[in-house]
Fold this sequence. Notes:
- It is a single chain.
- The protein is α/β, with parallel strands linked by helices.
- It folds into 2 domains: 30-144 and 266-289, Rossmann fold (3-Layer(aba) Sandwich), CATH 3.40.50.2300; 146-264 and 299-326, Response regulator (Rossmann fold, 3-Layer(aba) Sandwich).
- The chain contains 13 helices and 12 strands.
- Strand 1 (30-35), helix 2 (43-55) and strand 2 form a beta-alpha-beta unit.
- Helix 2 crosses helix 11, helix 3 (78-88) crosses helix 4 and helix 5 (149-159) packs across helix 6 (177-190).
- The longest helix has 22 residues, at 3-24.
- The protein is elongated and about 60 Å long.
- The termini are far apart.
Amino acid sequence: xxxxxxxxxxxGAAAGWPLxxxxxxxxxxxxxxxxxxxxxxxxYLVAGFRQGLREAGYVEGQSVTxxxxxxxxxxxxxxxxAAELVRRGVAVLVAVGGSTSVLAAKSATSTxxxxxxxxxxxxxxxxxxxxxxxxxxxxxxxLLTTSLGAKxxxxxxxxxxxxxxxxxxxxxxxxxxxxxxIEAQTAADxxxxxxxxxxxxxxxxxxxxxxxxxxxxxNGLIVxxxxxxDTQRDxxxxxAGRHLIPAIYHLREFPASGGLLSYGISLADxxxxxxxxxxxxxxxxxxxxxxxxxxxxxDLVINLITAKALxxxxxxxxxxxxxxxxx
Length: 327
């Protein structure tokens, strides 16, 4: 064999090496990410999800592929989006942004592993048999935010002790709307405080609800835990400030953006935990064996700047219990 023939043969073999190597490499697993929210409002939440994956050794684009589907507040789109992800052949389906996403995922598949993050009780919703032993193709994180309405009402009444009538803002499209309404009314009765139930399922409904607050001279507002209200954070804060209405929310993001106060968990951390569980599924764990994660800490955040603008003196006892004070 001549030197030229040898070089030609070697070059031809080398050209085939990358292709052969690629053929031997296993395809990256795919995670389906289904959310009722808007992508622009969820950047920090997706970052938390990716962090959870990284903690378990998965990096998007390098060792795992993520297919995102956003309903952008249009809940009726969720079943179609969930079905798309199932047809895509994802290894695990993540359902976040409220029970509506989880219901859509559950309807789309009874075999694929589903990891959820919801604010209400997954046992009551029929997603799992129990917190410790889900015994189904579903598990995840239960934030319990929908069950904290009574505590938020109590905190708001402590901040506004002269108040005689409060209102609770409910999204009628939420699967837990009735449950949250009953809980709020029970808490108001226990405190001997009048309660007005206002419903808002769209942007214009929020404007109408605040007009009712002003007309009825309501002394304070509890905004219920709901993905729709999360996406309308700026609108809610601006209207509450414009009409001088003390309002309490369920996420730190509200007082951090100018709202009065909040009581609840870290939503970004819940997404991190969802990422951890999704990674465990990819590594071979079964949803039936992964207990539903429950929060152990709830943060009280108070914005003193907003309190001053509303003419409120925050009681020292309330300040002492605050986990974060914005001033």
